[in-house]
Amino acid sequence: EACAVCREYNNDPDHDNDFNEASSIPAQETYSEWKNSPYGDPADPLYQSCVDCHMPPFSSVPVEVCQVMFPPLLRDPSTVHGHDIQGTSATYLENAVSLSMSAQQVGSELTVEVVIDNDQTGHSVPTGVTLRNMILRVIASDSSGAALSQLSGDTIHELGGIGAPALGNFSGLPGKLFSKINRDAAGNEGTVFTEAIEIVSDNRIPALSSDTTNVSFDVAGLNEDINIEA
């Protein structure tokens, strides 16, 4: 509940200081995402608190509580937690979900299925403010490295970046953008939560849930190995 103070709140579109009226839009829901999952149930074998995941112990050997006392007063290292509140470090982000991929060719069409399992995280992925998102990009290329044409299936939302892919802009390419997308009073999508009057879509992956993305590529006339990446 202490963590929820900064991880669970609504906005106030009409600025009347009432954040719990019908017009209020959820801004962050990390606490309830966790609370409504098995991880938030103390009776469930999967139960873990926010501290268990985000403030892990920083030592594997006994920690001196006080250097003045003799002999030193030592504390069990498993009870001494780090206070940097990890979560957005590479270690956490790169191990938030599990990804599996399969491919099948039927005639001149190569179908790729990518499954993302949120089996590593105690809340939705991504979570927190709506600026956060996760992009799945699916690439199929021939032996020379040339990208194959997409025939059907999911493509990355324009919030994935409009422009050169080499600069990190993946809009319209095979794959999927995972995010909560808000709309403001002027009709603009992708707005920050403070300006939101409506949630347009939310395809984030809840804890212990999975998402499947399907993309088909054109392999007509090719008789060579195809490289597929996700």
Uncertain parts: none
Shape: globular
Distance between the termini: 37 Å
Helix content: under 10%
User: How many beta-strand elements?
Assistant: 14
Average pLDDT: 94
Portion in strands: 25-35%
Radius of gyration: 23 Å
Strand order of the largest sheet: 5-6-13-9
Pattern of helices and strands: HEEHHEEHEEEEEEEEEE
Work out the helix count.
Answer: 4
Instruction: Kindly name the structural category.
Output: mainly beta
Classify the oligomer. Answer: single chain
Q: What would your notes on this structure say?
A:
The protein is mostly beta strands. Helices cover 8% and strands 31% of the residues. It is built from four helices and 14 strands. It has helices at residues 4-7, 30-35, 50-54, 90-93, and strands spanning 8-10, 26-29, 63-66, 73-75, 98-106, 109-117, 134-137, 139-141, 150-153, 175-178, 180-184, 196-202, 210-218, 227-229. The strands form six sheets. Strands 5-6-13-9 form a four-stranded antiparallel sheet, with no helix packed on it. A two-stranded antiparallel sheet has the order 1-2. A hairpin with a 2-residue loop joins β5 (98-106) and β6 (109-117). The mean pLDDT is 94.
